[in-house]
Amino acid sequence: MRSYPAIDPVAFSLGPISIHWYGLAYLAAFAFAWWYGTVRCARPDSPFSRQDVADLVFYGALGAILGGRIGYVLFYGTERLLADPLYLFAFREGGMSFHGGMLGVAAAVWWFGRRRGKSLFQTLDFVVPLVPIGLGFGRLGNFANAELPGRVTDVSWALVYPGDVVARHPSSLYQAFTEGLVLFAIVVWYAHRPRPTGAVTGAFLLAYGTLRFITEFFREPDAHLGFVALDWMSMGQVLSLPMILGGAALMAWSLQHGARRHA
């Protein structure tokens, strides 16, 4: 049993401005998305140019931040929102939801693709390989903030979180590995050759939903929510089920229709 590493959530300060590790994690996520997007746009079947990638990442960043915050408040903080509607804008208190961010990104890239004459799934097929490494960075930011404590365990690598007295799984590290490196490997492997439009998006949804559902068994449910279904399912698992089912259905539909995607 080990104590949680003493990590200052503030990476450095510039006068009165404090730069947090979590903010740097987001910056690294968007920087990687831009870099890997430029790599993917060099492919002969890419529907987007290098300039398009910069604009696409900008739209996606707005969608991720706004959608992530709105999703967190709706999925995890409804009672507080009803008591205080301004809680929606309390960004300084933290709180972001991947599932909300995913919907925000989907809406943003749909709007971007529509302006470029591309379909939603053409655009998403190009975008989803850019996402996993950023998710991994985000989970590392959670670890730096000592957020998302795991469930109580006696494994040798368990950590005692600040203010706690029992050892827990470092679940944010588990999710950094699975949602970051493992998901990236799966999606990039699947997308390395042309697939029918929508198939890569479906693979991403299916893989992420499955990995998130599994790792939630090691993560302590949110204290104010507890288990929300069947006395053992967390909110993260409930929100991941539609991704698993929708991803499998989208892959089956796209592969059946066999329409060659353009990215």
Could you please describe the fold and organization of this structure?
There is one protein chain. The chain has 263 residues and is mainly alpha-helical. It is 59% helix and 6% strand. The strands form two sheets. Strands 1-4-5 form a three-stranded mixed beta sheet, with no helix packed on it. Strands 2-3 form a two-stranded antiparallel ribbon. A hairpin with a 2-residue loop joins strand 2 and strand 3. Helix 1 packs antiparallel against helix 6, helix 2 runs antiparallel to helix 4 and helix 6 runs antiparallel to helix 7. The relative contact order is 0.13.
Keywords, please?
263 residues, 3-stranded mixed beta sheet, single chain, two-stranded antiparallel ribbon, 9 helices, mainly alpha
Radius of gyration, taken over Cα atoms and rounded to an integer in Å: 19 Å
**Count of separate structural domains:** 1
SSE succession: EEEHHHHHHEEHHH
- Poorly predicted segments: 259-263
Give the overall shape: globular
Helical proportion, percent range: 55-70%
Mean pLDDT over the residues: 87
**% residues in beta strands:** 5-15%
Strands, total number: 5
Helix vs. strand class: mainly alpha
Q: Biggest sheet, strands in spatial order?
A: 1-4-5
* Span of the ends, CA to CA: 48 Å
* Tally of individual helices: 9
Largest sheet: 3 strands, mixed
